[in-house]
Amino acid sequence: MMSAPMASVQPLCHIPENGKVSPHEARIERYELDDGDRLLRRVLRRDGTVAETDLGPAPRRTKNPDWLHAIADQRYLRHSTLPNAGSAGDPVIVVDLFSGLGSLSLGVVEAARALGSRAEIGLAADADPAVLDVLSASLAPPPGTVRCVDLEAALAGRGERPTTAERTLLSGCPEAIDVLVAGPPCQGHSRLNNYTRHDDPRNDLYARVVRFVELRRPRFCIVENVDSVVHDQRHSAAIAARRLRDLSYRVDTAPVVLQWLGVPQTRRRHVLVATRADQRSVDVRDVLATYAVGEPELRTVRWAIGDLVGKEAQRSIDLPSSPTPVNLKRMRWLHRTPAYDLPNDLRPDCHRLPRRTEDGEARTHSYASMYGRLRWDQPAQTITSGFGSMGQGRYVHPGEPRTLTPHEAGRLQLLPDFVELERAPTRSQWARMIGNVAPMKLSYVFALEFLR
Question: Is 173 among the catalytic positions?
Fold first, then answer.
C-alpha cells in the first residue's frame, strides 16, 4: 500500500520552520503506528513515494520508534512461514554465490518486500548439498536455480569467452541480474585459524566472485567476510576491489559492527560493495550511518531467544548437545553461584588465566570468554559452529545449565523460524551452516539503499 507522494526526496523529510528534525523523522526506514491498531514499516523511495508494510497488530506498551523497530524485527524472527512478498513490477533478480543456507539472499528478499516489490533467486550456488536443501525448502527458489557446484573450479576462466564449466553454471541464469551477494568461505581469514592464518588458498575465492561479475555484469554486488580479511597475505579483497574497478564498477569497503544494524551479537564483518557504472553508487559508511538502529542495546540475548525458555522440545533443533560430565559440572557451577566466567580452578589447564611462560612471566590469551555463560541483558559474542560446546566460547545458556540449541544459535544469527534447518539431517551440519551465516540484516540494509 502506497502513501501519497512526498514533495521531494532531498532533504529526506520536510524541514520545519525552526530547522529542527527529530532523528526518527529523518530516517529513510521508519517504524510507526497507524491511526488504528497496526504496526507499519515505511520506507522512503528515491522518487519521493513511501512504501508501506503492515507488520501486524500494534504493540500496546510503546510508541517509541526504536522499540517499534525492535518489536518488528523480533516478530520477523518468530515467523513460521516466509512473509508474503509484494508483486509490483518485475522481480528483483538475485544471484547468491557460496550461498550457504541463503541468509544473504534472505536479506535482499526482505528489502524488496519493504519496497513493495519481490525478489526472485536467479542462481544460488554452493558446494554443500545440505545447505542447499535448507535454502530450497526455506526460500522456495524457482526450479533449476539452485546448483550444487564447486565454484572454485566452475569459475576458473579468463578473458571474455566463458569456459565450458562457466557456460554450464550460467545456463538458465538470467542475463539481467540486479543484486549479486557472495560470502566466500572465511576460514582462511579467521583469527581462529591457527594453521594457515591469512595465507590460505580459500582466500582466493574472491577472484571467483569477480569472474562471475565479469561474465554477467550485475547492477550491484555485496561481498562479505570476516573483518580480518584485510590482513590476508594474498590481499584477496584488495585485488578483487581493483579488478572490479577495472571492470568499471565503483567499489567501497569497510568493516561493519553488526550490532549497529540490529544483530544481537558482537560480531564484526568486512563488506565490499560494487556498483555498475550506470547505477547510483553506494557508500558503505553512509549506509551504516543511515540504517543503524536506534538503541541497539534493545536487541539482547533475551530479545532473541527469551520466548524459547521453558518450551518443550518437539524438534531436534531445540535440543542442546550432550555435555561431558565435567562440563555439566562447570555449567551447574556457573548457574548455582551465580557467575558468568569460570574460575581458574574449574578451567582446563590450557584455559587458565593468567598463564605463565617458561620464564615465569604472567601471560593472558585472547579466549577468556571460553567456558563462560551468556547474559540475558547483553548481546551474544560471535556465534560460531562451536556454539554447542562451552569450550568453544561463551555459549552457556543464561538461564539453564546447558549450551545453546541450534534453534537459539540460529535466532542469534537472525535466522527466522521459517528457515528449515532440519532439512539437513545431522547436528554437525546444523552447527556448520549456522556458524557460517552472515546475518540477513547485512544484505538487507545495502540492498534497501540500492533498490529504493
Answer: no
